[in-house]
Amino acid sequence: MSKYVGTVGSTAYETIKKDIIFGVLAPRTKLKLDAMKKQYLVSISTLRETLTRLASEGFVVAEEQRGFFVAPLSKEDLIEITHLRVLLECTALKTSIELGDTEWEANLVAAYHKLQVTEKQILEGDDSAKENWKRYDCEFHQALISACNSANLLSLHSVLYNKYLRYQMSVLTNRGVVAVKEHKAMFDAALNREAEKAQSILEKHITLGLDHTLKAFDPD
Question: What pTM did the predictor assign?
Fold first, then answer.
């Protein structure tokens, strides 16, 4: 029974988090448990546990006597998240390139291929590929740093990346061919074991993404 409950709770967590990241649940929205129980087909106790977990990660705000709300968005928060992402991801990338084996290379090649295919679809104006594009973008960045030999770092990075992604999804724009070229340059540098070059490209990639998002961002 506990295994079943755990599976249900994990599914609810992933689904609600996804809905927050992709804007289905808008910033500052009050999360009414009775309505969510019907929408996500889970118990009130599972919802409370899920929302408490999301609150601990910063996707939800728990207010005493008022309940749960989707966390707001702000430029200050986005800037802080981006700086932390640069710090963690660039550090992990260097170690991953130094320690990565042939299996790491194979996983990176596979992740890049999926990203490349969806980037082409996006550039051709296929908006239906948007969700896959962002998922494969995430998988590519995770593949780059997957050999860093630190479960804690990877866990922290995952939370930060999803917070960063939430801001990107809120502006509904992308940097087009420029970002595509940056991904290719990172991929090549990583496979060539050019750690410092890969770090430099990654930092620029994240920073330019911040600049792009800030220009389009409207917290209201």
Answer: 0.86
